Amino acid sequence: MPERIERLRAGEVPIYEPGLQALMERNRDRLRFTLDVREAVDAADFLYVAVGTPPTYSGDADLTAVWGVVDEIPPDVPGRPIVVMKSTVPVGTGENARARLDARGLRDVGYVSNPEFLAEGSAVADFMHPDRVVVGAFVPEDGERVAELHAGIPTEILFTDVPSAELVKLAANAFLSTRISFINEIANVCELVGADVVDVARGVGLDHRLGPHFLRAGIGFGGSCFPKDVTALKQLAGNSGYPFLLLQAVWEVNELQKRRVVQKLQKRLGSLRGRTVALLGLAFKPDTDDMREAPSRVIAYRLLAEGADVRAWDPVARPDDLHGVELCDSVLEAVRGADAAVIVTEWPELRDLVSPEIREAMAQPVLVDGRNLLDPDVAIAAGFVYEGIGRPGRATPNGELPSARPELG
Ligand code: UGA
After folding, report:
1. How many A from CA of 307 to the centre of ligand 1?
2. Measured from the CB, is residue 216 less than 6 Å from ligand 1?
C-alpha cells in the first residue's frame, strides 16, 4: 500500500485511534516506513507481522497477507531475527510458518506467537497496561527474547507452546463474544418478564467469579475481530470434526439482535414504509471510525428493505458504501422531521440527546436506545417514546404504552 506508507512518512495516522498520533510524533525519530523489505529486515532483531486476516468465503481466516510477509523475508537475512506473529491466525499457522521458513533455508529465523489483545479506541492504553502478554515459542530462547521486549511493562507474561498461544487469542475473543450474546439474550428475556437488564447485569457482575465486563446489552457486537474470530474458531473446530455448538448460538443471537431494532420500530410505528429513521452513530463502537461488521450496516439495510428512508450521523465514520443512506453532518440534521431515532453507537455526544430541541425537531419522538445509553425515565419525562434493550416497557402518564401516530396516508 504505497499511499499508506507515504501518509505514515508524512506523520499522518491513517486510522482514527486516540493517542496514536501523539505517540507517533513523540517517537518520530525512531520510526521508519518503507516499501523495501530488505531495508525493513536488514538491521532488525524482530520482524513483527501485524496484517489483516479477514474471513474467506468458507469462514476460515484468509492468510494471504500473512504469507505475503513471511514469504518475503529474504533468504540471506542476517543474524537471527525472530518473526513475531501479532496477527490473529488459526491454530497451526505457526507450524505452517515454521515449515515455510525451513523450506526456504531460513532455519535461523525464529518464530514466536505473541497475540495482541488491544481493543480499538483504547489501543495505546491497552498496550501500555496489558492484562497479560502471551508468548508461544518453538525455541524457549526466542520466547525469552520477545518477553524481554516487554520489560518496561508491568504485567504477567505467559509462556506457552505456539498452538496454545494461537488458541488463547481466539478463545478470549470468543468468550467475550459469548458474554455479550448471553447478556443480550438475558435482555430479551427481561423484555418479556419486565426486568431491567442494566440492573441484572450489575447484580451478576458483582460476583467476583463473573466480573462486570462485557455485560452491556445492546444491538450486538461488531468490528473486525469478534465476528471474524467467532467464525474462525467455529470453523477451526469444525474442520477438525468438532461442532462448536455454543459458538453457533453466539453467532445466531448476535445476528438476530441487530434485527430486533427493526421490530422495536415496527412496534411503535407500524409499517416502516415511507417513515424516516435517523441512525445516530455508525461505527461499530465509539472512539473509532471503523465500520467493519458494524451493526449499523445490517440495521440500515434492513430498514431500507422495509421501505424506510434512512439518515445517519456519526462524528467520525463517513462510509461511502452505505448506498441509499443519507449521511448528515449533525444530530439535529439527522433527526429533523424523522419518525424515529436509533442510538446505534454510544458516542458521548449522544448523552445529551434528550432535549426540547431534538424532541421538537422530530416528526415523532420515537427513540430506540440500542446501547442503553440514556436514562429511560429522563427520556420519557422529556416526551420521548423510549425503547431500550432489555429495559421494561414504560407506560405513559395515562398508563398506556405509547404508540406513535397512525399509518401515513
Ligand atoms: C476486541 C477485544 O476486546 C480485544 O481484546 C481484541 O484484541 C480485539 O478485539 C482484536 O481481536 O483485535 P475490539 O473489537 O476493538 O476489541 O472492541 P471491543 O471493545 O471488544 O468491542 C467489540 C464489540 O462488542 C463492539 O461492537 C461493542 O459495541 C460490543 N460490546 C462490547 C457489547 O455489545 N457489549 C459489551 O459489553 C462490550
Report:
1. 31
2. yes
Measured CA to CA, the distance from residue 3 to residue 10 in angstroms comes to: 11
Q: Where are the beta strands (DSSP E) in 154-275?
A: 156-160
Write down the pLDDT at residue 288. Answer: 92
Q: Please choose, from the candidates 274, 299, 277, 306, the residue with its C-alpha nearest in 3D space to the C-alpha of residue 409.
A: 274
Question: Are the C-beta atoms of residues 162 and 113 closer than 8 Å to each other?
Answer: yes
pTM of the model: 0.93
Average pLDDT, rounded, for the chain = 94
Burial degree of 46 (CB within 10 A; 0-12, 13-18, 19+): middle
Q: Please tell me the residue having the least CA distance from ligand 1 atom 30.
A: 221
Nearest protein Cα to ligand 1, atom 23: 221
Ligand 1 centroid from CA 53, angstroms? 17
Looking at residue 406, what is its pLDDT? 39
Please give the distance, rounded to the nearest whole angstrom, from the Cα atom of residue 226 to the centre of ligand 1: 7
Residue spans of beta strands (DSSP E) within 245-339: 276-280, 309-313, 325-328
- Taking residues 198-222, report their average pLDDT: 98
CA angle 403, 404, 409 (to 5 degrees): 130
Picking from 177, 173, 169, the residue whose alpha carbon sits closest to that of residue 249 is 177
Instruction: Indicate whether residue 244 lines ligand 1 (CB < 6 A).
Output: no
What's residue 57's pLDDT? 87
Average pLDDT over residues 145-167: 97
* Residue minimizing CA distance to atom 12 of ligand 1: 225
